[in-house]
UniProtKB/TrEMBL annotation:
<feature type="domain" description="Alpha/beta hydrolase fold-3">
    <location>
        <begin position="54"/>
        <end position="256"/>
    </location>
</feature>
<keyword id="KW-0378">Hydrolase</keyword>
<protein>
    <submittedName>
        <fullName>Alpha/beta hydrolase fold domain-containing protein</fullName>
    </submittedName>
</protein>
<dbReference type="GO" id="GO:0016787">
    <property type="term" value="F:hydrolase activity"/>
</dbReference>
<dbReference type="InterPro" id="IPR050300">
    <property type="entry name" value="GDXG_lipolytic_enzyme"/>
</dbReference>
<dbReference type="InterPro" id="IPR013094">
    <property type="entry name" value="AB_hydrolase_3"/>
</dbReference>
<dbReference type="InterPro" id="IPR029058">
    <property type="entry name" value="AB_hydrolase_fold"/>
</dbReference>
<dbReference type="Pfam" id="PF07859">
    <property type="entry name" value="Abhydrolase_3"/>
</dbReference>
């Protein structure tokens, strides 16, 4: 039995996901100029203020899904907060390995920061799963570069320990399959690079994280990726960063995106994310929006 999915299998899945994105969208697709050679989806029609912007980063193991998959989610966030939301359609592995994805996300942050003429700290970055890894990486790059565009990061069920093999993880029913996790890591970067702290942020030193933005960290009880997210959050706290931990015992990995993308996911995923998962998704999306609103009010 093969340890990883083949390139042919991956490309077939990617093509399917591209096709499901070819539908009427609520967001406006824009080609980003300059160093950005990718698209973003803009949600700005109902904004009552434009002094803050959310950059949203989809999940998919650095390999799957597109910004279009989070169309309904981003529209919901935009309508809830009445501020612009920009969904970054970063380039994905295996065609584009690390560091392309995280560099794309940071480039998107810088573009939005300049485009809207924002003050420092007025970009809020919200990532899910592997997208949370990229969001945290972009926030670190933002800090290190001295741009300081990002004032808050929201990390949903983050994938922060790419180096950890599936056999080293707790086995949890209906969580991410071991072969799939190992495939994500295998195609994202070379084996010797998996313990690079920018690839696996769980391995960052405390002093590296000093000055990182305020953080909201959502962890799921039924998720074999939550060990890395929990460790990363503890490191942030040790470095003096304000961290809001939220733990939902019954939630499955990906439950927020799977709820809002419910019409387009496969039947097996629909079955797994019915009932309580969908209620939890709305509950926690609203809770995060309330947290974002409180952060904006703090800075007024």
């Amino acid at each position: 039995m093969m340890k990883y999915y083949t390139m042919k299998q991956i490309v077939q899945s990617q093509e399917y996901m591209q096709k499901r994105g070819q539908r009427k969208l609520l967001g406006e697709v824009r080609e980003l100029p300059g160093e950005c050679s990718f698209e973003a989806l803009y949600y700005d029609k109902k904004s009552t203020r434009r002094d803050y912007v959310i950059v949203e980063v989809h999940g998919g193991g650095f390999m799957y899904n597109t910004a279009r998959d989070d169309d309904d989610l981003c529209a919901y966030i935009h309508e809830s907060l009445k501020i612009p939301v920009v969904a970054c359609d970063y380039r994905r592995s295996p065609q584009y390995k690390y560091p392309t994805g995280v560099e794309d996300v940071f480039a998107c942050v810088k573009h939005v920061y300049k485009e809207y003429g924002l003050k420092q700290g007025h970009v809020l970055i919200w990532g899910h799963s592997a997208g949370a890894n990229l969001a945290a990486g972009a926030a670190f790059m933002d800090k290190q570069s001295g741009v300081h565009a990002i004032g808050s990061q929201i990390l949903d069920y983050p994938y922060m320990d790419v180096y950890r093999k599936s056999k080293e993880r707790q086995r949890i029913r209906l969580s991410v399959k071991g072969k799939l996790m190992d495939t994500f890591a295998y195609y994202y970067t070379e084996e010797q690079n998996l313990k690079n702290p920018m690839v696996s942020p769980e391995l960052m030193k405390v002093e590296m994280l000093e000055g990182m933005p305020d953080t909201y960290l959502l962890l799921c009880g039924r998720d074999n990726l939550n060990q890395g997210g929990k460790s990363y959050g503890k490191l942030l706290r040790k470095s003096g960063v304000s961290v809001e931990f939220c733990y939902e015992r019954e939630a499955l990995h990906g439950f927020i995106e799977n709820h809002f993308n419910y019409a387009y996911i496969d039947l097996k995923t629909k079955w797994q994310n019915r009932g309580i998962q969908r209620k939890l998704a709305v509950k926690h999306t609203d809770k995060i929006c309330d947290w974002i609103q409180s952060k904006i009010q703090e800075r007024v």
